[in-house]
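To illustrate the input format used throughout this study, we show a single complete record. The first block contains the structure-token representation of the backbone; no residue identities are included at this stage. The design step must infer an amino acid for every position from geometry alone.
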């Protein structure tokens, strides 16, 4: 059961979460379920589903089926590192994970999680990813999962382009890219257009907003990618926020 799928406002959601509120946020817990079972997680770093092991469970399963030992993965919008931990396990010692995250608080948790779990195949990139390199204004919110690049932001962060980083030799060509950047998805893809055209990495994309969905699909399909929406509802229009996988035929 994915606790995050149960509304916090419902009676069931309130009852299930009540005992979880008693756990100190600074406490380190073993992750209960899934491929990360036994790994360590700081309770206050993210949602309870992280240390329970149920966080975005469907996306976990899709990654498990897709990634292979020795793969190179980019985790863009890594937050506190749940999917960085997962992909580091899935690709094994010979694989590599590059974890991109601009927010200082999240970076602290991310580095701590890698340290307490003795993860040696993941590299932290303290930057936001966009269509070009430089500096950008970042809008912070009360929730650590939200926020993003915005002209109204008050935090200045480093901004990088995947194409420029690869051309400089700073990072290798990836087999898979996971992107969760709160509405900035199109710009991440634009900054990786040469990479997508030449290497065709598989892309896991969390979409925030229907216009962004249309823009990303149009760009990816123009590059020859096939789009599959995960957990697509039967009939009716697509939800505002959704996850998809883009793969290159053959």
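Output of the design step:
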């Amino acid at each position: 059961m994915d606790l995050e799928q149960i509304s916090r406002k419902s009676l069931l959601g309130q009852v299930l979460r009540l005992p979880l509120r008693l756990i100190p946020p600074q406490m380190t817990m073993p992750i209960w379920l899934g491929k990360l079972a036994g790994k360590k997680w700081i309770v206050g770093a993210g949602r309870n589903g992280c240390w329970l092991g149920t966080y975005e469970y469907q996306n976990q399963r899709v990654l498990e089926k897709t990634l292979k030992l020795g793969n190179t993965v980019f985790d863009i919008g890594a937050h506190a590192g749940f999917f960085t931990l997962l992909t580091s396990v899935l690709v094994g010692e010979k694989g590599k994970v590059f974890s991109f995250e601009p927010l200082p608080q999240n970076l602290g948790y991310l580095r701590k999680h890698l340290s307490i779990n003795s993860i040696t195949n993941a590299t932290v990139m303290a930057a936001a990813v966009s269509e070009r390199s430089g500096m950008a204004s970042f809008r912070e919110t009360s929730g650590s999962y939200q926020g993003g690049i915005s002209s109204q932001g008050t935090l200045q962060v480093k901004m990088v382009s995947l194409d420029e980083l690869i051309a400089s030799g700073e990072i290798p060509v990836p087999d898979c890219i996971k992107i969760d950047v709160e509405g900035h998805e199109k710009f991440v893809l634009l900054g990786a257009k040469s990479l997508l055209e030449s290497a065709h990495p598989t892309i896991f994309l969390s979409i925030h907003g229907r216009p962004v969905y249309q823009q990303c699909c149009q760009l990816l399909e123009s590059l020859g990618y096939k789009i599959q929406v995960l957990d697509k509802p039967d009939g009716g229009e697509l939800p505002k926020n959704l996850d998809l996988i883009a793969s290159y035929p053959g």
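Structural context for interpreting the output: The chain has a mean pLDDT of 89. The chain has one domain: 55-247.
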